[in-house]
Write a structure and sequence with these properties.
Shape: globular
Keywords: Membrane, Transmembrane, Transmembrane helix
Mean pLDDT: 91
GO molecular function: cytosine transmembrane transporter activity
Distance between the termini: 41 Å
Structural class: mainly alpha
GO cellular component, one term: plasma membrane
CATH superfamily: Hydantoin permease
Helix content: over 70%
Transmembrane segments: 59-83, 104-127, 147-165, 177-202, 222-241, 262-285, 305-326, 347-367, 373-394, 415-431, 437-456
CATH topology: Hydantoin permease
Protein name: Pedicted L-rhamnose permease
Number of helices: 21
CATH architecture: Orthogonal Bundle
Length: 464
């Protein structure tokens, strides 16, 4: 996430379509997406691919394809619908689902945002802890590993929460300055790591991953399709889940959706691979080899990895990257909570969100299991986007009333609830029962939710 989102989605026109005079050109979105997706999460995700034993082909070609599918989803679904209706996700959902049902969505959204922000506080803490010689959390750690860790996380969480709660002017300006620094840091880390690995040709680069390896203890093996599908749905809540309707409603044309490629190929391609290279360097160290010979996974701690490559600049970049991701995420969580408790001020709901995120940050599991958490996040929220997509494209053919909750003046649209509950329940059961990777069932759950919504709407609207 990036603070730049808030430049565009500036808290205006929450319950009305964006007027023509406020529309922005595609250039506004280009920088925003490049900054948003070269952030704290990237420092964790790149190394985690290595722990999953991916091969060079699976990673390099898989990410190329998966990120393309994500860009196409933004361009032809999110941006397309956003420029037609020019409404925020929350207001669009409220018209279809009703106020009570949207409250449940906001709660889920807010809590998941807090956990994501918490994992970014964890990322920043691994950098801040270096001068204090703090023991770094291991891949298998779920609880805090020491008193120093707790103090550092609490301090970072408090600072981030207070800044997010103070509003967006200062944060946005700071983020605009930080994004290029973070991108330069990723590029520099990648180049230095290639040098440390003795890479002098493309075949040397390819051989870093080679044919892949067994996953590290406690990790699952990633194949080509794991990489493709996971990278497609890493931002599933934003594109097929329609969260970015709130951003693209300010776009002059749906073509602005193509600007998401800047985020996918700078952040989710270059930055992930650069971060993986940092970890590849660390794996050759005696410390990492000692972990492996004991049958343990070497820790993934972004602070030390970046410090090893580019020193103090690396430490600063990791702190900034974690901060620029956690900050707007806490702010958005606060907004989601405010929709539930509107009488509480924005300042205090943001402090509540920041407190939840900081508590989550104490537990390294959210960051260390980020691949799994991001898959779960998309799986829970994306099907709500299917409701909007299917209604938008098929309401006339199916003969159902658009924005039914608003037209019929109901606060709880059963068609939406049953469609989501059945698709979520069925595919979550399949995932757990047959040990199917959650990202693999995100698309089927999304499609089923959309189809069931149309079927239930037709039946219940006729009955009404």
């Amino acid at each position: 996430m990036s603070d730049k989102v808030e430049e565009i989605d500036g808290g205006e026109f929450e319950r009305t379509p964006v007027p023509e005079s406020k529309l922005k050109s595609w250039k506004n979105f280009l920088g925003m997406y490049a900054g948003e997706h070269a952030a704290g999460t990237e420092f964790m995700i790149g190394p985690l691919f290595l722990t999953a034993g991916v091969s060079a082909f699976d990673l390099i070609i898989g990410l190329l394809l998966g990120n393309l599918l994500a860009v196409l989803s933004w361009r032809f679904l999110t941006a397309e619908i956003a420029v037609k209706n020019r409404l925020t996700l929350y207001y669009q959902l409220e018209k279809i689902c009703g106020k009570k049902l949207v409250t449940g969505y906001n709660l889920a959204n807010g809590v998941l945002f807090c956990f994501l922000a918490g994992s970014m506080i964890t990322v920043s803490a691994t950098a801040v802890g270096i001068p204090f010689d703090m023991p770094m959390p291991k891949l298998t750690d779920t609880t805090p590993n020491g008193f120093t860790w707790v103090i550092i996380v609490l301090l970072i969480g408090a600072v981030i929460s207070l800044i997010a709660a103070r509003g967006y002017d200062t944060v946005t300006k700071a983020a605009n300055w930080m994004s290029p620094i973070i991108v330069i840091a990723f590029v520099t880390c990648g180049i230095v790591a290639l040098n440390q690995l003795g890479v002098s040709s493309f075949s040397d680069f390819w051989n870093i991953w080679g044919e892949g390896s067994e996953p590290f203890p406690g990790q699952i093996k990633f194949t080509f399709w794991h990489v493709v599908i996971w990278s497609w749905f890493a931002n599933g809540a934003m594109h097929i889940g329609m969260s970015d309707l709130s951003v693209f409603r300010f776009a002059k044309k749906a073509k602005a959706g193509w600007t998401t490629a800047a985020g996918m190929y700078v952040g989710h391609y270059m930055a992930w691979i650069a971060a993986a290279l940092l970890y590849a360097v660390y794996l050759k160290s005696p410390e990492a080899q000692a972990f492996l010979s004991n049958g343990e996974a070497p820790p993934v701690a972004p602070g030390p990895l970046a410090n090893n490559a580019i020193g103090i600049f690396g430490i600063i970049a990791v702190v900034l990257a974690g901060w620029t991701t956690a900050n707007p995420t806490i702010y958005r969580a606060g907004l989601a909570f405010q929709a539930i408790i509107p009488k509480v001020s924005t300042f205090w709901v943001t402090i509540i969100a920041g407190t939840v995120a900081t508590i989550a940050g104490l537990f390294p599991a959210f960051a260390m299991k980020l691949l799994g958490f991001v898959a779960l996040y998309g799986f829970i929220l994306a099907p709500f986007g299917a409701i909007i997509v299917f209604e938008h494209f098929f309401h006339k053919k199916a003969g159902i009333v658009k924005n039914y909750a608003e037209i019929a003046n109901i606060s709880f649209n059963k068609s939406v609830f049953f469609a989501w509950a059945i698709s979520f329940g069925l595919f979550y059961f399949i995932s757990v029962q047959f040990d199917v990777f959650l990202s693999f069932v995100t698309l089927p759950a999304w499609l089923l939710c959309g189809v069931l919504f149309i079927v239930f709407s037709k039946y219940l609207q006729k009955k009404a």
